[in-house]
Amino acid sequence: MSDKEAVLELVKRLPQTVSLREILREIEFIAAVKEGLDSIDQGQGISVESVEQMMAEWTTT
C-alpha cells in the first residue's frame, strides 16, 4: 500500500468530527511506525534485550 493510499484509508476510518490537528497527529504516528518498520527491515533496529536494558536504567535512576 502506498503512503497516499494509507492516508486515504486512515481518513475514511476517522469520525466526521475529527479536527485537522487530530488528522495530522494520526498521519505523523503512521509515518513514525512505517519509518521504524523500514529501519528494522534494513537491520537498523534495536534488540529487545537492549531496550529492556535501557528501560531498566531509566526506572532505576
What is the percentage of strand-forming residues? under 5%
Please give the count of helices.
3
* Overall average residue pLDDT: 91
Q: What class would the helix/strand composition place it in?
A: mainly alpha
Domain count, please report it.
Answer: 1
User: What are the segments in which pLDDT stays under 50 over at least 5 consecutive residues?
Assistant: none
Q: What value does the Rg take, in angstroms?
A: 16 Å
DSSP, total strands: 0
For the report, how would you describe the main beta sheet? none
Helix content: over 70%
Gross morphology is elongated
Task: Describe what you observe in this structure.
By secondary structure, the protein is mostly helical. The longest helix has 22 residues, at 20-41. The chain has three helices and no strands. The model has no long low-confidence stretch (mean pLDDT 91). It has one domain. The chain has helices at residues 3-13, 20-41, 48-60.
Secondary-structure map:
Layout: H1 3-13, H2 20-41, H3 48-60
Condensed summary:
The chain is mainly α. The protein has helices spanning 3-13, 20-41, 48-60.
Key descriptive features of the protein:
61 residues, mainly alpha, 3 helices
